[in-house]
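Re: [ENG-882] Designed sequences occasionally contain unexpected residues at chain ends

Forwarding the minimal case from QA. Structure tokens:
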């Protein structure tokens, strides 16, 4: 699938206002350089994300139960997780393990945007969400985050009675870097004979390198200028056939997939190519192409109807995918 374009990208005024606020808020944050390591940059990124979410992302809706817990992780570890569930839900529920975004080396389940969008998605879709605090690169490059997702999903299945998980409707999903982790975890689980009900991949980096015309056209100035460097940090020298979803030699037998793709995203063409490869091996695949969106704009639900439309489409498709 290809997105056809005959004119330069025209961004909605709400996206331009958000981009301006990114610059203004970032200018007031502490400056860090490569010698500082990743911890100061993670803190600055979270401060930026939270400040913007307060302005641009709708608050979590009423009627959602939010609870912190621990799930199994890779290397026999334990990972923090946050559980989002409709307060009116009773009994076993369709369930999605969720991997947050953050460029492989950042992000957390505690970011305000993650909280708000996960709560809204859980309530609107009727699918309970367990958002996972997976390990981050460069301290923990591939396959550590994938190991965490694989073991967390297995833990959810093992604790299905305690956590009211419907074991036959247990899937995985993620945003941005988290979508790469989710797609790779789904492939590993299915390759080992385990059932995964569905995979939801939002603004997926399907290739861990610049891919297609979109990588050139939107590689700078559209909110994702350093994506190639971040992907290299995550990959840590691992073979592309293992770490990069688009380069996997065999995608047969994977669960049905939903890909949400932003029109003006450097990652767009790799995600569309991944959808094509899934269809080639008869994996049921749905693509939602967000017209006018950039990589980060689906979170602008407090300011932009386009972001609310994206959120509605996501919830609607998720409800369909997980219905009994």
């Amino acid at each position: 699938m290809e997105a056809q374009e005959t004119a330069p990208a025209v961004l909605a005024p709400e996206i331009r206002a958000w981009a301006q606020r990114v610059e203004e808020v970032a200018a007031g944050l502490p400056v860090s350089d490569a010698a500082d390591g990743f911890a100061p940059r993670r803190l600055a990124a979270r401060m930026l994300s939270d400040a913007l979410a307060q302005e641009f992302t709708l608050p979590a809706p009423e009627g959602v139960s939010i609870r912190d817990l621990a799930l199994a992780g890779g290397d026999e570890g334990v990972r923090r997780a946050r559980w989002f569930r409709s307060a009116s839900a009773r009994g076993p529920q369709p369930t999605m393990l969720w991997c947050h975004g953050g460029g492989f080396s950042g992000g957390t389940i505690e970011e305000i945007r993650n909280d708000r969008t996960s709560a809204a998605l859980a309530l609107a879709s009727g699918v309970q969400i367990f958002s996972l605090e997976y390990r981050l690169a460069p301290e923990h490059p591939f396959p550590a985050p994938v190991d965490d997702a694989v073991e967390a999903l297995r833990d959810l299945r093992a604790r299905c009675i305690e956590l009211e998980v419907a074991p036959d409707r247990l899937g995985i999903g993620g945003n941005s870097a988290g979508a790469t982790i989710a797609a790779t975890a789904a492939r590993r689980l299915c390759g080992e004979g385990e059932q995964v009900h569905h995979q939801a991949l939002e603004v997926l980096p399907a290739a861990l390198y610049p891919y297609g015309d979109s990588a050139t056209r939107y590689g700078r100035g559209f909110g994702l200028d350093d994506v190639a460097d971040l992907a290299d940090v995550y990959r840590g020298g691992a073979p592309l056939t293992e770490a990069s979803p688009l380069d996997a030699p065999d995608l047969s037998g994977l669960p049905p997939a939903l890909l949400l793709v932003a029109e003006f995203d450097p990652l767009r063409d790799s995600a569309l190519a991944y959808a094509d490869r899934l269809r080639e091996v008869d994996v049921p695949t749905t693509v939602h192409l967000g017209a006018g969106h950039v990589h980060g704009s689906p979170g602008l639900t407090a300011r932009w109807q386009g972001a609310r439309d994206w959120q509605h489409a996501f919830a609607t498709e998720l409800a369909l995918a997980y219905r009994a």
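QA comment: On inspection the terminal residues look reasonable. The chain has a mean pLDDT of 94. Proposing we downgrade this to a documentation issue.
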